[in-house]
Each structure stands twice: as structure tokens, then as C-alpha cells.
Amino acid sequence: MLRYLALLPLLLAPALAQAWNAAGHRLTAFIAWQQLSPAGREAVAELLAAHPDHPRWTTRARSVDPAALLAEAATWPDDIRSDPRFHDEGSETPTPPVPGLPDTRRHRRWHYVDLGPDGLPAAGELDRRIGELARTLGSRGRPTEHAWALPWLVHLVGDIHQPLHVGHAGDSGGNEVEIEDPFNPRKPFTSLHAWWDELPGPPWLRGRRLEQRASRLLAQYPPPVPGTIETWRAESHNLLASAYPQRPGSLLPLADEDFRRRSRDIADRRIVEAGYRLGWLLEATLAARVPRETK
């Protein structure tokens, strides 16, 4: 017990909300790609190529396939958290402009929305920003804004389908809740939010294995109803009742085998739902920007 108590200062330190890990966002993006028409895919490929970090994505993906590049772009809003070209607005000195981007802020509040007891947003901007980004992407504005908006929209649609990204305001969406994980000897104690973020698989999931995993998920779960942004938010928030482990461990609530199995099923289903809905949203949003003769 003493060795567990010695860990308490680390356990109780607030963790930073991320989102689904890289595997989860890549899976969502790859599933979305499957929903696009040839014209929609062409429009997405053009926007990806116009983004200043396009060369980084090709290097990481080891491919120029737009489907693989969309999967890499899906992690970009998390990647910039540690990128010195960008800054945390309100707490850091603004960084110089990046050619080809209209904004160098990290926008940490965009990744989540916490709801109060009345069911109304109490913190975060996730749901509101999805709508704004979709309007930006479908507008006739500057090409740099469209290229910048695409990875943000891809990422945030994934985020809103993660239950703890539409969490309780009182515990920062599970970031202030620590649990025991007997299946991870490297990280036997972690925040509940981080535990959920890591459910989709290893963060290095790419290429053929990513495609195979996405195909298995598509075969396992049916397409969802399209819904609205408010629908997606409500679905995630309603899942919170089953997102917290109830069985006590040696020191903290225990993520036992049954809890892990049920949580994995929720995570997999939400990734599929996010992928379908993202694909449909991109198709509808970009349709007005595709030349008539290519439709």
C-alpha cells in the first residue's frame, strides 16, 4: 500500500484532455473516405495538398494516397499541441504566422464540451466549432482557410463521438478521475479520460493494418442515422453512465475485464458512427465546391 500511496501526487495531477488517440482518429478518417464519391475524394485530396503540412503527412504515411494522408491529417490538431510553431492563446506569446495557415493558435477548448447538471454546455466549444468549421469548408472563402479547416473538422467529429469529450463539468470530462488498469503493466494507474482515448489501438496504426482494422469495424457495426451535431453530443453524453468503472481496485476504481470489453465495444461503435457521419458531412459540405462537370 505504501508504494501506491507514493504515487498519489502523480495520480492526482490533472491530465490534459487529448481525444481518441492517433489510431482512433485515423480509423474515423479512413472510414469517412469510404463514404465519399469520386468528386468528394478529389476535393478532399486538393485541400490536403494545399495544406502546408502536406509533406509531413506524406512522410509519416510513407504514401501519397489521399486516403492515407487524410488519416494523418486527422491527428493534426493534436500534433500541434507540441509544435513550437503554434501557441496556447491566453497563456503564451503568439507565434509568427505560418505561410498557408490563417491561424497559429492551438485551440485547446475546441476539443471538448462539458455539460452541467442542466444538460447545457458549461465549458469547451467542441459542438459549436464543428458547425463553424463545416460552414467555413463549404464557403467560397480563401483556399488557405479551407485547407486549415479540413483537418480540424475531421478531428473534431471524431472527438464529439468520444463519450468523455462530452463529459461532466465537475471532473473535467474524466481527466480528474484516476483508475487502475491491471492489463497495462506500464501504466497501471491513469486518468479515466486517457484510458478511453487509448481504447482504439496503438497510436502507430497505419497502412495495411489500419485498412484491415477499419474493414473489420465496418463489417461489425451498421451505419448510424445521420443525426445532427446536437444528436452526436447527446449520444456521447448519454454514454457517460457506463463510462466510469464501478468495481473497486486496490486503491482506485478498477477497469476490469468486463468493463474493458464493454468499453471497447462502445469505442469501436462510436468510431464507426463518427466515420460514416464525417464522410457524409464532407460529401455534403464539399459538394457545392466541386465543379458541376466533375459530379
Could you explain the architecture of this structure?
The protein has 295 residues and is mainly alpha-helical. The protein has a single domain (16-87, 96-291), classed as P1 Nuclease (Orthogonal Bundle). It is 49% helix and 4% strand. It has a two-stranded antiparallel sheet with strand order 1-2. It has a two-stranded antiparallel sheet with strand order 3-4. 44% of the residues are buried. Mean pLDDT is 90; it is low at 1-16.
Task: Name a few traits of the molecule.
two-stranded antiparallel ribbon; disordered N terminus; 295 residues; P1 Nuclease; mainly alpha; single chain; 13 helices
Write a brief structural summary.
The chain is mainly alpha-helical.
Helix/strand order, N-terminal first: HHHHHHHEEHHEEHHHH
Q: What would the principal axes of the Cα set say about the shape?
A: globular
Largest sheet: 2 strands, antiparallel
Tally of individual helices: 13
Broad CATH class: Mainly Alpha
Strand content: under 5%
**Whole-number mean pLDDT:** 90
Write the layout of secondary structure elements.
Blueprint: H1 2-6, H2 8-11, H3 22-34, H4 38-50, H5 54-61, H6 66-73, H7 76-79, E1 113-115, E2 121-124, H8 126-137, H9 143-160, E3 178-180, E4 189-191, H10 192-197, H11 207-220, H12 229-238, H13 257-287
Antiparallel strand pairs: 1-2, 3-4
Helix pairs in contact: 3-6, 3-9, 3-11, 3-13, 4-6, 4-9, 4-13, 5-6, 8-9, 9-13
